[in-house]
Write a structure and sequence with these properties.
The chain has 140 residues and is an alpha+beta fold. It folds into two domains: 51 residues, no CATH class; 74 residues. Helix content is 29%, strand content 16%. It has three helices and three strands; from the N terminus they run βββααα. It has a three-stranded antiparallel beta sheet with strand order 1-2-3. β2 and β3 form a beta hairpin.
Length: 140
């Protein structure tokens, strides 16, 4: 078990109330380090820190703040959404001469993918509204 010298700056680490982030200094280490104390930690010192932090021994626990998505995260979401509709950009899927049934609203998918590509190529940080994926419409 580690010997705690001090802990500071407690902040709720998630919305469940089961994890508190702290900056801690253990006697066994030369520097302060981040520590996520949880009520369900397998190690006794983790559960102990959680309970002590929750009782505000190290100061009031700051509220959890939902992280703002980074530009890279938004780019990743756009790329994932693009990959889900790769099939819609294949010419044959909308060609009635070679596909039966064929996709009749390919243009809607191509527009959707164009909007996603714009986000993937020019990502911005923050909460953004991703375009709505069109519903597949197949010939009968």
């Amino acid at each position: 078990m580690f010997v705690l010298q001090y802990a500071k700056d407690p902040i709720w680490n998630d919305q469940t109330g089961q994890s508190i982030h702290l900056t801690v200094k253990w006697e066994e280490f030369n520097e302060e380090m981040p520590f996520a104390a949880t009520s369900y930690d397998q190690e006794e010192h983790g559960r102990d820190l959680y309970n002590r932090a929750k009782s505000e021994e190290f100061g009031a626990v700051a509220p959890y703040v939902v992280p703002t998505p980074t530009a890279e995260q938004n780019r990743g979401t756009a790329v994932n959404l693009l990959s889900e509709t790769d099939w819609a950009s294949i010419a044959d899927v909308a060609n009635s001469q070679v596909s039966n049934p064929h996709l009749v609203n390919q243009a809607a998918f191509l527009e959707y993918r164009s909007q996603l590509r714009d986000i993937a190529v020019n990502p911005v940080a923050g909460y953004i509204t991703f375009p709505t994926k069109p519903q597949e419409q197949w010939s009968s």
